[in-house]
From TrEMBL:
Residues 39-106 form the Cupin type-2 domain. This is Cupin domain-containing protein. Pfam families: Cupin_2. InterPro entries: Bacilysin_H2HPP_isomerase (IPR052535), Cupin_2 (IPR013096).
Length: 121
């Protein structure tokens, strides 16, 4: 593999494996050997499905505003905020009125996300 293939851009919508997670919630996935990045776009006021998985997940709000629903709590987040979700903790996100973009990091990679598809896995 050429080293150039290891470089990506958050704003290039043609890069990564595309996946529709829920209505109004799409992602581009970048799998690695020990970690995985996912650039998620959530349409204005759209919300993902409550779910959990065994992998640890970190998230960073890149743009917009949202409410993170995690472990039974609702926490408002703004651009620049980041959080950790331990494996097995139910979670989802609801975008604010302008929508939002989130960078998620999974360790280890989520096997269901190694290919294009639909849903949270």
């Amino acid at each position: 593999m050429s080293q150039a293939e290891e470089f990506h851009n958050l704003d290039d919508e043609t890069q990564g494996l595309a996946r529709e997670l829920a209505p109004g919630v799409t992602t581009r996935i970048f799998p690695g050997e020990h970690a995985m990045l996912s650039v998620v776009r959530i349409a204005p006021n759209a919300m993902g499905t409550m779910h959990d998985h065994p992998e640890e997940q970190w998230g960073v709000l890149l743009d917009g505003s949202a409410v993170r629903i995690q472990g039974g709590e609702e926490i408002a987040v703004k651009k620049g905020d980041f959080w950790r979700t331990p494996g097995g903790v139910p979670h989802t996100m609801k975008a604010g009125p302008e929508g939002c973009r989130v960078l998620d990091i999974f360790a280890p990679p989520r096997e269901a996300y190694r290919k294009q598809g639909k849903g949270f896995g």
